[in-house]
Amino acid sequence: VQLVESGGGLVQAGGSLRLSCAASGFTYRAYAMSWYRQAPGKERELVAAISSLGGETKYADSVKGRFTISRDNNKRTMYLEMRNLKSEDTAAYYCGRSSGVEIKPIYWGQGTQVTVSS
Question: Could you tell me if 36 and 89 are in contact, meaning their C-beta atoms sit under 8 angstroms apart?
Fold first, then answer.
């Protein structure tokens, strides 16, 4: 299993970014996927999750209405569209693959840094 995130960077508050997570090494369409983030000194937290076929999504309250999770099973890629970014969104963002039973990931990417300047 390999998960590779990209798209992070430095952005001003109010700006937008789109993160991507390219997956390989497993039957991508069979597994729910998710985005987590971890800020310095804080625990890793769920940002958004999406079911295997993309029909169901869930979001942390802090990002509802600003972030959109999606996936393209043909491209084996998951996305996180982030709008109206705030300084508190600054963190390392990780994509994760579920176990197939629970949404909590058992495989992680290496992470991509998002820094929002105020």
Answer: no
Extract the tokens encoding 104: 């909590």
Q: Which of 110, 111, 100, 107 is nearest to 1 (CA)?
A: 107
A 10 A CB-CB count for 113 gives: 12
DSSP count for the chain of H helices, then E strands: 0, 11
Task: Find the distance separating the first CA and the last CA of the chain, reported in whole Å.
Answer: 37
Task: For 49-60, write each residue's pLDDT tens digit.
Answer: 999 999 999 999
Whether the CB-CB separation of 56 and 78 falls below 8 Å is answered with: no
